[in-house]
């Protein structure tokens, strides 16, 4: 995380594999080497979150707990409650997944409409895949904290309104 990596132009053609440019501060980042700016959150590769920043790890744990609670709510016939908790928890896209009967993942909950993305990358060969680096529009720590609070609030809604069926 250094200013010496800040760039003026978009040398995306000259980037090494695994490097990207932050769309917010224009810093050269290399998430796999843990060299990233204050906006970097994680990389989505083949649908999975990899190389999360330390600022985003807590949010991912909360999102994972949230997905488990939503799954329990859906299994108990409380899909409408899960929908409202997701919508009010700042994940309207994830709420729509629940409303349409799709499975929900930690990645769906962790992402938000204001997440910025880098350049889409694809690799060939035996370890082929595709993905994109994801960035927060503000400092990742503040963004992740705001998302975490929203998810904790939504978890509390599920916990209070769902009957105890144990």
Automatic annotation (TrEMBL):
Source domain of life: Bacteria
Name under which the protein is recorded: Uncharacterized protein
Source lineage: Bacteria, Pseudomonadati, Pseudomonadota, Alphaproteobacteria, Rhodobacterales
């Amino acid at each position: 995380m250094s200013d010496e990596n800040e760039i003026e132009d978009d040398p995306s053609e000259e980037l090494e594999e695994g490097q990207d440019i932050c769309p917010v501060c224009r810093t050269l980042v290399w998430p796999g080497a843990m060299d990233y700016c204050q906006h970097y959150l994680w990389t989505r590769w083949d649908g999975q979150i990899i190389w999360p920043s330390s600022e985003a790890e807590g949010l991912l744990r909360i999102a994972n707990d949230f997905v488990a609670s939503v799954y329990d709510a859906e299994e108990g016939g409380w899909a409408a409650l899960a929908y409202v908790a997701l919508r009010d928890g700042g994940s309207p896209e994830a709420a729509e997944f629940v409303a349409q009967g799709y499975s929900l993942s930690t990645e769906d909950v962790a992402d938000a409409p204001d997440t910025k993305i880098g350049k889409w990358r694809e690799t060939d060969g035996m370890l082929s895949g595709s993905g994109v680096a994801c960035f927060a529009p503000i400092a990742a720590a503040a963004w992740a904290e705001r998302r975490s609070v929203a998810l904790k609030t939504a978890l509390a809604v599920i916990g209070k309104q769902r009957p105890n069926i144990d």
